[in-house]
Amino acid sequence: MFEQTFKNIDDILHKEAGCSSELGYTEQTSWMLFLKYQDDL
């Protein structure tokens, strides 16, 4: 379940945000998870 979710996030980041490296994916994914956490609070 989580693997597919992260795969979907990576695909979106690669296409729309222009992330070209694993570091870019990690940074953007962690930012999105942080924002989701804040939204849930």
Quaternary organization: single chain
Mean pLDDT: 78
The shape is: globular
Task: Work out the helix count.
Answer: 2
Helix-strand makeup class: mainly alpha
The largest β sheet comes out as: none
Low-pLDDT residue intervals, each spanning 5 or more residues: none
The number of distinct β-strands equals 0
How far apart are the first and last residues' alpha carbons, in Å? Answer: 23 Å
The portion of residues assigned to helices is over 70%
Radius of gyration: 10 Å
* Helix-strand sequence: HH
What percent strand? under 5%
Keywords: Restriction system
Family: Belongs to the N(4)/N(6)-methyltransferase family.
InterPro entries: T1MK-like_N_sf (IPR038333)
GO biological process, one term: DNA restriction-modification system
Written account of the structure:
With 41 residues, this protein is mostly helical. It is built from two helices and no strands. The chain has helices at 2-17, 22-40. The chain starts with a helix and ends with a helix. The model has no long low-confidence stretch (mean pLDDT 78).
Please tag this protein with its features.
mainly alpha, globular, 2 helices, 41 residues, restriction system, T1MK-like_N_sf
Write a compact overview of the structure shown.
The chain has two helices and no strands. The chain has 41 residues and is mostly helical.
